[in-house]
Predict the structure.
Amino acid sequence: MNVWCPGAFQASLERWVESGKMIPVLADHDGKIGSVVGRIDPRMSAESNGGLIVAGHLDTESELGARVYELVKGGARSWSIGYTIPEGGRRKAGRVTELAQIDLAEISVVATPANEGTRTLSIKSEPSVQIVSFEC
């Protein structure tokens, strides 16, 4: 079992902010360009006691993005993160692996998340902008 340590996301989020890029939101961790269904602003992301809280936009202009938005809104989908662990970023503590550093690569909308505690905190709709906040 993996457990995130406090501060594990901090360096990665700072790198995302410095890059000026948005964190991609994918459908089911599929890295194909057609599976990008939204974006997360890393400046609107922070660690919490529960892990990571982010806010972003789902692209409802695309057919897949609109479908994903409706599924999230209806509670039929959840969230997962794609990440790597840099060298020295993991510690074994008995049967638990402590993740002290996480390089966040993407965030995905999935049917069955690895972390069952992942949840959508709020979802709002404005003209041409859908905002989703979630915690994992």
User: Anything to note?
Assistant: Residues 43 and 69 are 22 Å apart (CA to CA). The longest strand covers residues 51-58. The mean pLDDT is 86. Residues 63-73 form the longest helix (11 residues).
